[in-house]
């Protein structure tokens, strides 16, 4: 069958997920609960509620109303950061839920409205069908609830579906990983979720990195094309970034009639679309270009990952919400959970550099330590 000919009928797949999602306001969880969300407005949502994931009451925030909270939605253009504690995606439209606690230690807990609707358990998950996965707001045995998702292999500290018996963990996006998708990187052909075979080497079309054996990929049976689940589900078609007033579009091929070299505006390294995969660029002014991993919508940690540490097109900490303090017997002062900078130097325990890694940092003295070295 020709690559441009459609190899499926729409009527046969009424719930098919079409990727990439159009922009950063949409993600898989919102898509799956869209029927409920369409009827959900600030008038129909509960104005105040409690949730198992947080010790304080939550209030509904509608930024379109003048009497609403002073909180603002996540806005890359205004350098406003608001990350959901459930799916760890940016909260870019309202209504949403935020912590109602107003004391001096006001926390930054927030949830998409649809993330309050997640089921308490999942049966027959394709990665672990033998046991029921139970919803948990945090894994119980790690500071800030950091775990490694057994589907996408990204670290995450959002909500988790967990097998108590096997310690199998999946983040909320991978908990609902679709059976089949379409993707504009390979239009008109159905991509099926498959388990990568042992001793077979597959390369993701979006990042040109290998897909680990015994892990999931979205694959075209006709063409032998493969996508990492994370690259397929987490890279939106367009993004907003402070470096350009226009939306940046995800591209899979070199830009037509582009005469110069390709340089990422964030890390300033040269890249080669024909052998490195997808990138974001501005179609209107043809100026801004960046690696998808460098374009992550987090502003607190401005140091992009070096290209040699990129193993997919997605930033390795895309599912981590940094911030918050932890007290430990290792150090007399509270430690802040952040991403390491070059200026942080070396770990107090192992002696290795801290740049780019998850670290704990004392804001009173010079003590810094890797997350894994402390936990």
UniProtKB/TrEMBL annotation:
An MF annotation (GO) of this entry: metal ion binding
Pfam families: C1_2 (PF03107)
Keywords carried by this UniProt record: Metal-binding, Repeat, Zinc
Top-level division of the source organism's lineage: Eukaryota
Residue intervals of the Phorbol-ester/DAG-type domain: 332-375
SUPFAM superfamilies reported in the protein's UniProt record: Cysteine-rich domain
Cited InterPro entries: C1-like_sf, DC1, PKC_DAG/PE, Vacuole_Formation_Reg
Name of the protein this chain belongs to: DC1, C1-like, Zinc finger, PHD-type, conserved site
Species this chain originates from: Artemisia annua (Sweet wormwood)
Lineage, highest ranks first: Eukaryota, Viridiplantae, Streptophyta, Embryophyta, Tracheophyta
């Amino acid at each position: 069958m020709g690559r441009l000919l459609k190899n499926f009928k729409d009527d046969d797949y009424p719930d098919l997920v079409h990727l990439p999602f159009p922009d950063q306001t949409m993600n898989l969880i919102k898509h799956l609960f869209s029927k409920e969300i369409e009827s959900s407005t600030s008038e129909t949502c509960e104005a105040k509620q409690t949730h198992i994931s947080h010790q304080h009451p939550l209030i509904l925030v509608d930024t379109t109303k003048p009497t609403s909270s002073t909180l603002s939605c996540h806005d890359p253009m205004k350098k406003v950061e608001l990350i959901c504690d459930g799916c760890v995606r940016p909260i870019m439209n309202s209504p949403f839920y935020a912590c109602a606690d107003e004391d001096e230690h006001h926390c930054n807990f927030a949830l998409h409205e649809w993330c309050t609707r997640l089921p308490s358990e999942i049966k027959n998950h394709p990665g672990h069908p033998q046991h029921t996965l139970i919803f948990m707001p945090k894994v119980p045995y790690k500071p800030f609830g950091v775990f490694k998702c057994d589907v996408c292999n990204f670290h995450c500290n959002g909500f988790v579906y967990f097998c108590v018996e096997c310690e199998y963990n999946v983040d909320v996006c991978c908990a609902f990983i679709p059976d089949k998708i379409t993707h504009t990187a390979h239009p008109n052909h159905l991509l099926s979720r498959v388990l990568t075979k042992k001793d077979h080497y597959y390369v993701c079309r979006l990042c040109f990195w290998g897909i680990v054996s015994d892990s999931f990929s979205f694959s075209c049976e006709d063409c032998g094309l493969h996508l990492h689940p994370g690259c397929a589900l987490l890279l939106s078609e367009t993004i907003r970034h402070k470096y350009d007033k226009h939306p940046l579009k995800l591209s899979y091929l070199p830009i037509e009639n582009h005469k110069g070299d390709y340089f990422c505006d964030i890390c300033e390294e040269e890249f080669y679309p024909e052998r490195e995969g997808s990138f974001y660029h501005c179609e209107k002014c043809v100026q801004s270009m960046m690696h998808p991993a460098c374009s992550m919508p987090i502003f607190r940690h401005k140091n992009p990952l070096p290209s040699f540490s990129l193993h997919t097109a997605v930033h390795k900490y895309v599912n981590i919400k940094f911030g918050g303090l932890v007290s430990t017997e290792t150090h007399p002062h509270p430690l802040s959970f952040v991403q390491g900078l070059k200026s942080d130097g070396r770990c107090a325990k192992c002696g290795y550099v801290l740049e780019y890694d998850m670290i704990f940092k004392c804001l009173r003295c010079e003590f810094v330590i890797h997350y894994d070295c402390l936990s």
